[in-house]
Design brief:
The structure is a homodimer. Chain A has about 150 residues and is mainly α. Chain A has helices at about 5-20, 30-35, 40-50, 75-85, 110-125, 130-145, and strands at about 55-60, 65. Chain A has a domain at about 5-85 and about 130-145: Arc Repressor Mutant, subunit A. The first copy, chain A, has a two-stranded antiparallel ribbon with strand order 1-2. Chain A binds a DNA duplex (30 and 30 nucleotides) through helix 3.
Chain lengths: ~150, ~150
DNA sequence: AAGTTTGCCTATTGAGTAAGTCGACTATTA
DNA sequence: TAATAGTCGACTTACTCAATAGGCAAACTT
């Protein structure tokens, strides 16, 4: 039940972009540095997220990446599905990659996998980047009040 | 968030063994046939589950595998952990493979992964092989009354 | 217009894992 | 003692993951 490194990096990068949403385009290099993600690897990840429609970009100096819509409109599930595919533990219970199970009869395990899928999806779908930003800001306030820019 | 084939096969095999728990040792071959799992592959899986303490075996004619304790005492989480390792999406929130996160401060995502892990674990830990057997029997009764042996 | 900055795209690599196969060995029982 | 069945380790094949690299295209600067 593992999340790929790519999926984790993508989540972190999107969070970073959500945190700086108001500040306009962000360079790959800066996101890479802020979140400690290999630059060339991050490049591919952002590109993938762009192709999926969650990011837009601008070239040249003052260029960079930015969310294609406000953080409220993008869930963690959206991000992970782009990077890692369906959330379901196995395909026969996936909503996005539904595949007919040859063993239709009394496959009790199928019910269990579906339950699992729904539990995962319900958490990741209702959690938006805006939620993460909010949590991030409130936890930062509690621990220390440093405002690095 | 994928379950490996091995994890799925293991679950199916254990369910099969739970269904036939009263009948004594079951041959690899029969489990393989009943659940449509490659025989030599299943061999390894059962061996692994044996080493983990969930199965016992007997050699020679009338030999085979059987659960080391009643189906109530083995959860699906137990089985999957043997085959695929920790249930957690990433190691820093795993109970079994806990690893210190270098980015301690305000890692909001960590909270989310933990929530996800707990949701998965709660389902798979409370579901025992006995539960699956029960569900299997009641659903079999509903759809048809064929009793293949 | 030239040059710099930045993202865009494709290919490649190296490591590791996943899924499955194989051959020989050992214990049990008829 | 022959047949049955599990045990063990090695091997294979294909694929995926994580990352790197090279050149291209757009945009901004001077």
């Amino acid at each position: 039940m593992r999340l790929s490194t790519k999926g984790e990096y993508a989540s972190r990068a999107m969070l970073e972009l959500a945190l700086r949403f108001a500040a306009g385009p962000q360079h790959i290099r800066d996101i890479s540095a802020a979140q400690d993600i290999p630059e060339r690897f991050l490049e591919q990840i952002l590109l993938q997220l762009k192709r999926a429609g969650y990011l837009r970009s601008r070239k040249g100096p003052q260029g960079g990446y930015f969310l294609s819509r406000p953080p409220e409109g993008i869930s963690v599930a959206d991000v992970i599905r782009v990077m890692d595919g369906p959330l379901a533990p196995i395909d026969c219970v996936s909503v996005t990659a539904h595949e007919i199970c040859p063993k239709e009869d009394g496959c009790v395990l199928k019910g269990l996998w579906k339950e699992t899928r729904d539990a995962i999806a319900s958490i990741l779908e209702r959690t938006t980047l805006a939620d993460l930003v909010e949590r991030s800001r409130s936890s930062r306030k509690k621990t220390s009040t440093r405002n690095r820019h």
